Every structure is written in C-alpha cells, then in structure tokens.
Amino acid sequence: MKTPNIYHVLCLRTGNSARSILAEAILNAHSAERFCALSASSHAVGAVNPRALELLQRNHHKTDSLRSTSWDEFALPDAPVMDFVFTACDQAAAKVCPAWPSQPISEHWGVADPAAVIGNEAKIHRALTNTLSVLSRRISLLLCLPIDKLSRMALTHGPQKFGHEHPTAV
User: Fold this and answer.
1) Percentages helix, strand, coil for the chain, rounded to the nearest 5?
2) Which residue among 28, 35, 66, 150 is least crowded, i.e. fewest CB within 10 A of its CB?
C-alpha cells in the first residue's frame, strides 16, 4: 500500500551487493522522508559487500536493514508499489527487467561495479568511494526536483539529464 507523499524507489543491480545497496542507503539518508528506497537484483548474491557496508558506516549511513534481495520479492501482492525504478548496473540497459504493475518511472544510471575491481585495498577503496560519490551526486539532483509538480512525461525524459551530468563520470 502506498503511503501518501512518500515515493517508493527500487534500486536494481544484477547482484545487489554494492551499487544498489549504496543507492538505497544514500537515498534513505538524504530524502527527508520524501522517498523510501529499497534495493534488489535479478540474481541476488545473498550478502551485502562488506567493504560497501564499511564505507557507508564511515560516512554515517544506517546499514542495519540493508540486505541482498531478489526482485521477485517486489512482485508479490503485498509488496510496496514502486514509483521509481533505477538500475545502477553499467550494463543493465541491455538487460531485461520485469514489468512492474504500477508502471513506475524508470531510469538507467550506469555505474561501474566496484565489487568487480581486482587489486589492492587502496584500488578497491577508490572504486567504492567513486561509486558512492557518483550515486550521491545523482541522488542529490533527484532530491532537488519538484517531483510532485512534474508530469510522468517530464520525469521520463528529465532524469537522464540529472542522472548524467558527466556521461563519462564512471
């Protein structure tokens, strides 16, 4: 059931261990209760990336409710109705996503996978920090929009502009 004046957002990623988890935590922390963010994936890995959790905790984000979730959970009859679906994969634009009954506004935010980075701790930390920064900027721009005053058509075309201020950012 939809809570008035709160927009439900689903952040999708193939594994749901880092990028979508970061987006969920950032949006919930900064939304001033305008949004309720959740995350899921087509192939949940079953655990949140521990380095992503550490980074969120160091940046004072709540992590206690974060978990790796299958998107099947959001197809159940008692699942929250989604207003927005954001894919955070760098290759998700080419993947098939389920048809959501509420026909939410969808946007692809391609972000490289920090969990796939191989190397020393410094290199992995830089990748995660960069992902956190990119997602924070995109979410900040989303939060600046007067969403309740925009039409579905404007939002369908508008997020590409706010989500991609620098197409090669990541």
Assistant:
1) 40, 15, 45
2) 150
